[in-house]
Specification:
The chain is built from eight helices and eight strands, in the order βαααβαααβαβββαββ. By secondary structure, it is an alpha/beta fold. The chain is globular.
Length: 236
């Protein structure tokens, strides 16, 4: 992992994130970054979750050459979609502009337009395995010849009407990392049928548990999802 960045209310730099990952505590449920790197006209089109995602993307990208981007969010900007559904029920129509921004790849599209970036972009939503699916996608891009790939992971709490489907996402957050191809060492990610041994659930939700592993020196991290098991490994 060549570079990383993360943002959540109250956690805006690497040092605060490392302290929080070592000893998590409740964070505010509201907040959005300034996103000063994006032109104001484009920035105004984003909902708070989009600003969170792109704050980490701009910070992680820094002055490096453009590269393919994989954006990953379990639910995306579901609050915007809910507003559209309410409008459809009450008025029988929706705003075309709002609808165009409600799709899962809209955040990446705005980022690429703002940066005049013609690199490939992917938007991943794979339920409880979203972060793993994003890294599989990134690994495929690297194997296909990309010298680097940026992964951007982001989510926020679901609206009240969808709380029956909520998991452990209790605050808006996003993180990004730049992955580069390497001939030795690096990371690997494997999946298979889960064994009978018990894998303890951690206190962090899946996306932040993955970030905690990536920022640690642990040799491996295992996560079980139903009958499937994911194994993250670090190689010397």
């Amino acid at each position: 992992m060549a570079r990383w960045a993360a943002w959540a209310p109250g956690l805006t730099d690497s040092e605060s994130w490392l302290r929080w990952l070592a000893a998590p505590f409740p964070l505010p449920v509201d907040g959005k970054p300034a996103l000063a790197a994006m032109p104001a006209m484009m920035r105004r089109r984003l909902d708070p979750l989009g600003r969170v995602a792109l704050e980490t993307a701009y910070t992680c990208q820094a002055d490096d050459d453009a590269c393919p981007v994989v954006l990953a969010s379990r639910h995306g900007e579901v609050g915007r979609s809910l507003t559209l559904l309410d409008s459809l029920v009450s008025e029988g129509q929706v705003s075309p502009a709002s609808f165009s921004l409600s799709v899962h790849n809209a955040i990446g599209a705005l980022y690429s337009i703002a940066r005049h970036d013609v690199q490939p972009y992917s938007a991943i939503a794979a339920g409880d395995e979203t972060v793993e699916a994003a890294f599989v996608e990134a690994g495929c891009l690297l194997a296909d010849g990309a010298p680097a790939v940026m992964v951007v992971v982001y989510d926020e709490p679901l609206p009240a009407r969808y709380q029956a489907f909520a998991d452990r996402v209790t605050f808006p957050r996003g993180w990004a990392c730049r992955l580069e191809a390497t001939d030795t060492g690096g990371l690997s990610l494997r999946t298979g049928v889960a064994g009978r041994e018990r894998v303890a659930d951690g206190v962090l939700p899946p996306d932040l548990a993955a970030l905690a592993f990536l920022l640690s020196d642990r040799p491996a991290y295992t996560r079980r999802v139903g009958v499937r098991q994911w194994q993250w490994c670090r190689h010397d």
